Amino acid sequence: MLGIVINKGENYYTDIKDILNTIGDLYKKYKWLISGYECYPQDEKLAKLFSGKAVFISSVDLKNVLDIENFQLIWGVLSAIPQNISKEEVMKYKLPYAESNNEIWDESYPMQHPLADIEIIGWDSSATVIKSKDDSIIRMVKAKKGQAISLNEYNSSSNA
Fold it and tell me: What is the domain range of residue 31?
């Protein structure tokens, strides 16, 4: 499993729509668990949807939400769950979170949700961390986001 950090060159962190556009149609292969989040959509219906409880949403519904308002994810985790896995199965596990969770910076640490294939993590409006079981997804994001760096590289530069 590889991971990258995007903390330079973006208008803001975390721009969910931009990240999903970066991985292209791959996001459509999944349902999305959004948990441990802090965000403030201005649209009344979206504000209700994102009022604190975990959100489990289809890729179509996620796209529709972001078409209504591409709000900033300040803190939070989007976990890509294969389509064949039910909400009931997903909710049997501890919900992923970002705030105060330093384990997300460890490339050797597995994704928080055992059923997830990808994690997109918003870290305090200052960075986006992406982890994937499929290394080609990380390489694709890195190629499209030239200032993205590996978690190992980020950790080495942070500890220097």
Answer: 2-158
Residue 14 DSSP symbol: T
This prediction has a pTM of 0.94
Distance CA 49, CA 43 (A): 10
Q: In the 8-state DSSP scheme, what is residue 91?
A: T
Q: What pLDDT digit, counting tens, does each position of 25-72 carry?
A: 999 999 999 999 999 999 999 999 999 999 999 999 999 999 999 999
| Alpha-carbon span 68 to 35, nearest angstrom | 20
CA 24 to CA 146: how far, in whole Å?
16
102-136 pLDDT, tens digit each: 999 987 878 999 999 999 999 999 999 999 999 99
In the chain, the number of structural domains is: 1
- 3-class DSSP string for 107-147: CCCCCCCCCCCEEEEEECCCEEEEEECCHHHHHHHHHHCCC
